[in-house]
Amino acid sequence: MGQSPYSTTSEIFATGGEGYLKEDHTPSTLPERREEILKLRRSLKPAARGVGAENAFLSGKAGQGKTAAAKAELAELQAFATAEDLELTTVLFSCEGISSSYTLACGLCEELGGTNPNGHPMQKVLDHLWEAMNQVGGTIIIVLDEIDNLGTDDKILYSLPRARDKNYVNDDVYPSVIGISNDLQWRDNLDPAAKDSLYDDSIFFAPYDANDLRDILSRRASKAFRDTDLVYENPDGETFTISVDLDGDDESLDTAFEARGIDRGACTLRGIDSGVLSEDVIPLCAAYAAQDKGSARQAIKYLRKAAAIAESEDSPTVLGDHVRAAQDEAERELIIEGMEQLTTQGHLALAAVTILELANETDVRTRDVYDVYKSLTNDIDADQLAQRRMRDHLIELDMLSIIRARKSASGSVGGEAYTFELRVEPSTALDVLEAVSRFDDVDFNTMTQNWLRE
Ligand SMILES: Nc1ncnc2c1ncn2[C@@H]1O[C@H](COP(=O)(O)OP(=O)(O)OP(=O)(O)O)[C@@H](O)[C@H]1O
């Protein structure tokens, strides 16, 4: 057998370390969210005393650690409840794909009681839900992640937090809700009654800055990569390194600090000392992510990708160039995702420009795009927009970085003339378009050939 391109070990990643750069890894501490977690703790404290927690609402853009903070703090509370023998149940429920109070109520019944009453009238479903809560008993904290998926169908957000006040559930049941949302406007549009009952405490997660992201990445890197230690400074200004023992029973940083008898809270993270990551890698990943959305998810993704690229090149170290390549690749993926999610009219406008480019036409004018667009709308039997409205779609594609729209000098009086070109490879756009089911019967090659003949 020839030598396989696969290997069970890596020169870059620590054994078992790659998991720390994966989406599903939940950190047990989030020092950058200390303030937010303290606020959440304040809302949860009554639960530790056997009465219900306050309702809370965590908001902020994607990748800001809202879900991670809620999970970490609830794990802390759950550990306390177990030790104190308190009746406490926490449910983390993702509302992804759930757009009505009805579906949410059914999902919660299933989560709490094991059966899904889908098909029954709403009142019956709610009765099921209250019964499931009675069976569980005690303090019940329901975390509704991506709660904005509910849109305006928010009735359940009124009744769920009030189930006890309204006597829907027994006296020994204390339900509360923690809502999590990336959509900052959604809450403002809620029915005032739901808004009132849901949000005792509102906690905003501001975007991470480059320093926060550097710290987050450093901690992840110390676990994910070989030969990578954290460098801390103590209150006396002395620096020291901490390495995490992945083979130990508890590989948390707290344990590593405890083992050395040092108070972690009094020390400041200064960076990493690594034999496999060049010095600029983490600052670059942090800077790219901070410039964009300040998302920890994005920063971690850059680091993961950069390391994977270094590995695939058999490089023993991850370099700044690998981060640049990772950022390019991630940006391309985002653009491809943007192309996949276009509406039919967006796809038609993109298809028209793509066909023209495949026929070697560059910097095409609106009129030419419109000719191909018309022929495409006939082919797939779609609504045909007026030229000006189709042009609006082209300009929208420019805003999504899919094509480039340039105002040209030859604009007629009263109107602006544009030329358009793809910002992605025509073959990439073609791959996306050919996967759109609406275009199943369109033969892009023949259309290109026809245009070439004309
Ligand atoms: N302070 C932090 N320390 C370590 N990891 C973090 C921190 N903040 C976020 N992360 C990580 O970043 C990723 C995204 O975080 P999380 O899912 O909590 O974001 P979110 O604010 O809930 O946004 P979304 O709705 O997009 O999930 C997760 O992998 C999480 O573990």
Give the number of helices.
Answer: 16
Give the CATH H-level superfamily of the largest domain.
Answer: P-loop containing nucleotide triphosphate hydrolases
Could you give the count of β-strands? Answer: 11
For the largest sheet, list the strands in their spatial order.
2-3-4-1-5
**Structural classification:** alpha/beta
Instruction: Name the CATH architecture of the largest domain.
Output: 3-Layer(aba) Sandwich
Topology of this structure?
Elements lengths: L33 H15 L7 E4 L6 H19 L3 E7 L6 H13 L8 H15 L1 E8 L9 H5 L13 E9 L10 H7 L2 E4 L5 H15 L3 E6 L5 E4 L10 H7 L8 E7 L6 H12 L3 H17 L7 H21 L3 H15 L5 E2 H15 L6 H13 L3 E6 L8 E6 L3 H9 L9 H10 L1
Parallel strand pairs: 1-4, 1-5, 2-3, 3-4
Antiparallel strand pairs: 6-7, 6-8, 9-11, 10-11
Helix pairs in contact: 1-2, 3-4, 7-9, 7-10, 9-10, 9-11, 10-11, 12-13, 12-14, 12-15
Bound molecules: adenosine-5'-triphosphate.
Question: What is this entry, summarized?
Answer:
The protein has helices at 34-48, 66-84, 101-113, 122-136, 155-159, 192-198, 210-224, 253-259, 281-292, 296-312, 320-340, 344-358, 366-380, 387-399, 426-434, 444-453, and strands spanning 56-59, 88-94, 138-145, 173-181, 201-204, 228-233, 239-242, 268-274, 364-365, 403-408, 417-422. It is of the alpha/beta class and 454 residues long. Adenosine-5'-triphosphate binds at residues 23, 26-27, 30, 32-33, 60, 62-68, 182, 216, 296-297, 300.
